[in-house]
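Handout, section 4.2: multi-component inputs.
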Amino acid sequence: MEVKGIVIIAGNYGSGKTETSVNLALHGKKAGLAVSIVDLDLVNPYFRTREARDVLTRQGINVVLPDEKYMHADLPILSPKVAGIIKNSSDLTILDAGGDDVGVTVLAALADSMAEHTVQMLQVVNPYRPFTETVEGCLKIKEEIEISSKLKVTGWVSNANLIDDTTPQDIYRGYDLVQALALKTGIPVEFITASTELMDGLDLSRFDCPVLPIERKLAPPWRRSRQ
Amino acid sequence: MAKVLMKGNEAIGEAAIRAGCLNYFAYPITPQSEVAEYLAKRLPEAGGTFVQGESEVAVGYMIFGAAACGERVMTTSSSPGVSLMSEAISYIAGARCPAVFVNIMRGGPGLGGILPSQGDYFQATKGGGHGDYHMLVMAPDGVQEAVEMTMQAFPLAEKYRGPVMIMGDGMIGQMMEPVEFPEDLYVPPTNKDEWATNGMDTRKSDTKNIVKSLYLDPTVLNDHNLLLKSQYDRMKEEEVRFENYNTDGDYQALIVSYGTMSRVCKTAIDEMKAQGLEIGMVRPKTLFPFPEKAIHDAASKPGCKVVVSIEMSMGQMVEDVERVVKGKTPVQWYGQCGGEVPTPQKVMEHIQSLLNS
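Output:
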């Protein structure tokens, strides 16, 4: 998988942007890249990149978070560090945005910093989430995201899952949905995701794109002690 | 219907629509705002109405108004917002109108924080508003149960003619789980003629409904309160819900825990079992009516040395646990509040240290 440069992970609320971002960062690091990950989710204080901070930092990934004292606030604070990270980007710099159009509004404020760079914006799609079951639903979100962020979506990512209830069929359904989106928009499928436990059961010959294995890093508290 | 992946907040919104609730009024507050966001999108599609009130006080009375008209109606909020609605809840209970209130609890008191808490147990079960009233209070431990309880809440509110509360917390509201919406949980309204105002029609009929909570005659007010009490007594007979966990065999300690905290306790119980230590749990699904007999009986089992009420509060439910255990077994509290959910590890260490002391 060859995802490099500045990569914005966007998508509808709850599509799995953070889980995708965190796993993409770890994957890039394993491939030998210098990786930074920026928590840009100014919308929702729960289940954010910051919860995976320790895992990421231990692997040598540069994690950019809001200041400690504002960590648990639901305030739209954009750390001044973010613009600096974009100007001096790593081999792979991941910007984990918030959900829907409101979640990417902050990107418009970073437009000046990003102007000199090639920026990819990937839209994450999970067909099991409300409002993105269909091509039309995903395209509506795409349009809203593009208007708010003043950027264009450059790639599709399927993150089809029902958490523990996911089957290979669900992964195929997600793949088919992003393929249909690619056909309709001319925008390529960048990759799809699948939980590591499902990888062995998947018919990889069915896919024309890479598969990012996902190891769940954001779990509710009763799951954490088992990790 | 096939499974979908939803946040607790979104699932509560969808469940309300599936239960035939087409009136939703709310004011945004973290960590429940997704209910309003979801229903702002979905309710118009379903032919319903969402109004964002100018405050939670206003919302409380919008709920009263819609309920008085015989409409299924819901609001959702989080702790500070529920405090503001408490006056209206008391009026709604006094006027015997059915309505559904959802509290996705956050840390308190005051503005507190925005992370999960269970600090509103007293507020929900012992009043909050003034006067001798109770709400039927249900506490889901996950997204699927939140769906089921929300769907059940509307017919229950009509059966007892009063406010019903769903008590979640920030974790239940924010976490995602695969869910289904069981169609058989939809129960159509049958008795709204008992209370609903229906405009000009009532002037022509002999029986008209007047929605009020004002009773100046002391004898009449006493009778009114006795009627309310009879409804709460009937809830205690017919609506107590709970889950027993690992209580079939013997156990050295009994945990009483609900909602998010009970999920953590289940993990801890499973891990202690793997290490050869048996711990039982009773999980109240209804906080009012409280599962008095279930907890009393489980606490009285020979071999059970201690009962621990584990809560994300500084010790609220523990008072009810003490009340129903009636001194049969020593009762203790363990918990944490402020937003950090105690880990299974912490629960295990606490139980083990209690049993070793």
